[in-house]
């Protein structure tokens, strides 16, 4: 196993991790921004007001994007397992 192979495996793992995490991060970011703007406009500074909408949006995002996330992860792991013989040599 050469250093370039290790770097390629690490890069691929990071790409898949970022791609799978992106929908959740974007949903939390957009929800937080909208709630922050509403809190600033109404001057209501309640912590549960920002937590509950984020929790609900994250749940909906997980339900909608979950199958795609699982498929992406299993495809990457399957490719990684099938490449083990060529990586070892």
Secondary-structure map with pairings?
Layout: H1 3-42, H2 47-82, H3 84-88
Helix pairs in contact: 1-2
What does this structure look like?
The protein is mainly alpha-helical and 89 residues long. It has one domain. The protein contains three helices and no strands. α1 runs antiparallel to α2. The radius of gyration is 19 Å and the shape is elongated. The termini are close together.
Shape: elongated
Number of strands: 0
Query: How much of the residues is beta strand, in percent?
Result: under 5%
Cα-atom Rg, whole angstroms? 19 Å
Number of helices: 3
Structural class: mainly alpha
Q: Strand-and-helix sequence, N→C?
A: HHH
Q: Kindly give the count of domains.
A: 1
Average pLDDT, to the nearest integer?
92
Percent helix range? over 70%
- The parts where pLDDT drops under 50 for at least 5 residues are none
Q: Termini, distance in Å?
A: 7 Å
Short structural summary:
With 89 residues, the chain is mostly helical. Helices cover 91% and strands 0% of the residues.
What are its keywords?
3 helices; mainly alpha; 89 residues; 0% strand; single chain
């Amino acid at each position: 196993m050469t250093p370039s192979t290790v770097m390629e495996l690490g890069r691929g793992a990071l790409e898949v991790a970022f791609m799978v995490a992106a929908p959740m991060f974007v949903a939390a970011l957009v929800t937080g921004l909208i709630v922050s703007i509403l809190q600033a406009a109404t001057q209501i500074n309640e912590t549960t007001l920002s937590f509950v909408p984020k929790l609900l949006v994250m749940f909906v995002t997980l339900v909608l994007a979950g199958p795609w996330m699982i498929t992406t992860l299993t495809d990457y792991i399957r490719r990684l397992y099938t490449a083990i013989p060529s990586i070892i040599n």
